[in-house]
Write a structure and sequence with these properties.
Elements (H helix, E strand, L loop, with lengths): L1 H26 L8 E6 L3 E2 L5 E8 L12 E8 L8 E3 L2 E3 L4 E7 L4 E11 L7 E7 L5
Amino acid sequence: MNKLRSRTFVVFVIILVTALVIISISLVPQDSQATKLIVVSSTTFIPLDKPVKLTIKAIDYEGHIDATRDDIIELYLTSVSYDKPMAKLNPRRIQLINGTGSAYIEGKVAEVVDVTIHWKEGISPLVSSKLHLFIGIGEE
């Protein structure tokens, strides 16, 4: 009879420990899958005097948006044509919502610019990226 009670107790303890492990694993926040930031535009040829939307995304290795990311991102503008950029970014600092965010670029003179995005704050650092744009040059 004691052996039966011992076995029953051991089985009960094993089941209890297994249940606790499963519950604790489900309560631990999952690691973010995003590894880098990308910035995209509907076109690389930006018309003069017309704001064009830039979309910033936190993506994983396969290019899928990580909707768990609500990070703070800063955008920087560098002119390839001039000493300093003539175009303007608005806003220059954004917060991603569900892994995406947006800003606008507008130029009044023809120039070639690079838009670079940098991770500033959030779950974990994201790799920066750059977009090359032609403002008032080429196809419009």
